[in-house]
Amino acid sequence: MRSDQTFDINVRGTFNTLREAASRMNAGGRIVNFSSTTLALNMPGYAIYNATKAAAESFTHVFAKELRGRGITVNAVAPGPVATSLFLDGKTDEQIAGFSKMAPLERLGQPDDIASVVAFLVGRDAGWVNGQVLRANGGIA
């Protein structure tokens, strides 16, 4: 993916979605943005991608405060490597094994691992969680 396309999707897309949500959501709503654990790892080759995810995390913190008084929470999930085609495609078995061993849990995340975190953040039990980035990554960072 080209860097301008990455920027458009991850920065402009996130900002425009937040702006629309802020104008349309009812009180008590939940917003969950997506970042990435790559931001915490500072891996070579990820500079543009990391910059876009840093923007998403910044938006999360700012919008949580901008929506003050409406009971709307704004949080983000920053997954680590997850066994999806988006992650797996183009990687060798050796690379995948290396990523699997990075986390203390010694495995790739599964889509359900991330879905459970999102379900928590949009549920009743997370009503006091606001402006946070939850790194669901098996302990990599």
Structure overview:
The protein has 141 residues and is mainly α. It has one domain: NAD(P)-binding Rossmann-like Domain (Rossmann fold, 3-Layer(aba) Sandwich). It is built from six helices and three strands; from the N terminus they run αβααβαααβ. It has helices spanning 3-24, 38-41, 47-66, 85-88, 93-102, 111-122; strands spanning 30-34, 73-77, 133-134. Strands 1-2-3 form a three-stranded parallel beta sheet, sandwiched between helices. α1 (3-24) packs parallel to α3.
List the helices and strands and how they pair.
Elements: H1 3-24, E1 30-34, H2 38-41, H3 47-66, E2 73-77, H4 85-88, H5 93-102, H6 111-122, E3 133-134
Parallel strand pairs: 1-2, 2-3
Helix pairs in contact: 1-3
**What class do helices, strands and sheet pairing give?**
mainly alpha
Strand portion, in percent? 5-15%
Largest sheet: 3 strands, parallel
Using the coordinates shown, work out and report the CATH topology: Rossmann fold
Strand-and-helix sequence, N→C? HEHHEHHHE
Helix content: 40-55%
CATH class: Alpha Beta
The CATH homologous superfamily name equals NAD(P)-binding Rossmann-like Domain
Q: What's the number of domains?
A: 1
